[in-house]
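Invent a record, attention on tokens:
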Amino acid sequence: MSFLTDAALGSGISELLKVVIFVAKRTLAFKSNLETLKKTLHSVEPIFDEIRNLHRILERPEEETQIFIKQLKSGVELVEECSTIPSWKPWKTFFHSKKLADLDKAIVKFFNIQVQGLTARLDLILRCLNIGEYSSFGAVPGVPSGVVGFDHPLKELKEMLLKDEVRIKVVSAPGGCGKTTLAKMLSNDPDIQRIFKKNILFLTISKSGDICDIVKKMLQPRLPSSHLPDIQTDDAAIDLLEWWLKSISPSPVLLVLDDVWPNWATVVDNLSSLNLPHYKILVTSRYSFPRFEPVYNLKILNDQDAMTLFCQFALPNDGSSTIPDDLVEKTVKGCKGFPLALKVVGRSLYGQKEVKWRREQKKWSEGKSIIDTSTELFDCLQPSLDALEEMKESSLKDCCLDLGSFPEDQRVPATTLMDIWAELYNLDDMDTYYNLLELAFRNLVNLFCTRQTENEVEDFCNERSVMQHDLLRDLTIHQSNIKPIEHTERLFIEMTGNKFPKWWSEEMNQPIHARLLSISTDKNFSGSWFPLTLPAVKVVILNCSSAMYTIPEFIERTNQLKVLIITNYGSSFSKLSNFHLLGNLPILRRMRMERVSLSFLNTSLLKPVNLQKISFTMCEIGTAFENTNIDLSHVFPNLEEIEIDCCDDLQNLHVGLCDIVSLKKVSITTCNELSALPEEIGKLRNLEYLMLNSCTKLSELPESIGDLHKLKSLDISDCLNISDLPGRVGELRALETINMRGCQGLSDLRKLPSSVKDLKLLEKVICDADISHLWKAYQSNLKKLKVEVVKEDAFKSLMRVISPIQQF
């Protein structure tokens, strides 16, 4: 029955009932007939709802229903006509009374036939859906042989699933990690089988899965074609599943939905909301689905389990293999702990000579990966990248591919990615964080929070880092290498020692039009470069590991370069040479350096006139910011932001920094030797953000801070030795936020400077409970103020006890 027919039927019943009630109050001649008809109509109303639900599931010929709808319309006319018959015409009263009785019988007959017919047909389907009697689509599949490393995940998942308060559990991991294997193990587990018995339905969804098609496939092997319902909508398919589930209720039911993609989220929502007792749903997906938290994140195999699984597929069971152990270990390491990779590579090498194994290793050492040589593995992982293209107006796929720029097993600060994506795709920190959340949701990256933040919406990328799964990193590099070198958008170069790629060492003179260049070298690289012509490159990422590192000469000719990132992953600080080349880059806007030594750099030779942001992380500062002979306002005439993080030897700030009046943000964090700020800091008249968190030796803020009339945010969190606020703090008339959590020295503060009452724009103060009452006392003056009290963690509570003992 179509929707329109259902609607017409419902409308006909409602209209007839209204007329019957209206006429019954105005005539006595037909009172008995009308009362009987009214009771009938009231009784069929709920039955009509049942028929409408059945029609959503079962295709039904409309002819007889259309005839009945006409009867209802005629019935309305009949009842209206009854109200006009005069009492002095008894033959008409008799005639119409008979018609009303016939109408009542027709309504009862129609609904009896409809419900009986549809229910009988549905009962047949439900009997055929009995999982205990039929074992085709939807039946529990067996567990693959030789499963390794899943005992602990199985135990954890089973415990989480069986918790009374958890109806739905999601197992999430990238493709090839064994999610389906774990779901099969759970479905075949003796404890699970004992609880759910034969009421376990296992449905494989996949990206293109359609619930109508899936339910049809479930029914086709069990029903004659004449009884097969024509399921045309998702609602009808869900209704049919619900009917089946209800038919076996209250027995416990486990519904396993394997390989679920985001387009199924609403369906899963609907299925999980069914009001059934003892009902559980297990979802496996390469997406994390935070809406169904808690999510069980399946991890890759550890080294021992990876070796065991690989040997099952790659080596004979009788121990007759002649492949050297070190070669086996290298091959296992190249599989990155992914079960599918271990199986695929293992099968491909089984029974092969040692030369075949070594040839595979040679390919990997030359920059190729398993992704390049295994179609099966590529086909498994590639859909995760392809799905990013569905967000046509988004830069999400580009952002994902850019992550191949960094070495494997390394965390990348979110602020680093923000600098890259700001210049390549015009993303701000909010957009960057959103993209990282999307990639994490899709299990393409792991997102970490290095310090618990009070407000995610305000902090965005600060205190966050990201790491890409090794095999997925290989996939992004493979994707970027599809085009010829000269036309690639991203050029990733990984070198061992001084071994350059063949195309480069042959002095390639043709321009390469990449917009992003990443070069990774190890500790044995000597620093001698071949030339490159990069007319379109906007971002250069140099990953080094050596104590001495030479900036490539070709950098000087990258006239479109906007972002330069130099990161040292070695054990000691890298000393840079050719640093002066950076002064000749006309539009360089952002520069980041990590674990490099700045003490010997002659910054007077560096004049990047368009540089807007410079960042130093875990660098050796030395005297770089103490030489008062350098006029930093001329070195950095347009600098708007400076970040100095985890630079342990920073003791004093160069006074010249206070002359860079273009600065809008100064962030000096976790610099534990910094004891004071220069009094001249008040000269930074355009400063909007001053971040000083975790500078544990900083004892005070200079009074000149009151001259920072544009300052919006002040962060002195975890500055343990600050014991007071400057008296002129009230002159910060633009101040909106103060973060002073963890300021242990303020715990004994008796009062705040009286000038704080003038902070009329102050909206939020984040602090510990010890001083929250001091701020709350000013809330009558500061109408916008909200005081957020931070709970003290156990570690800080312990430190409060230990500190006085240590001093004693």
Remarks:
- The radius of gyration is 36 Å.
- Residues 303-377 form a domain with the Helicase, Ruva Protein; domain 3 fold (CATH 1.10.8).
- The chain has a mean pLDDT of 82.
- The chain has five domains: 3-128, 151-297, 303-377, 396-473, 621-808.
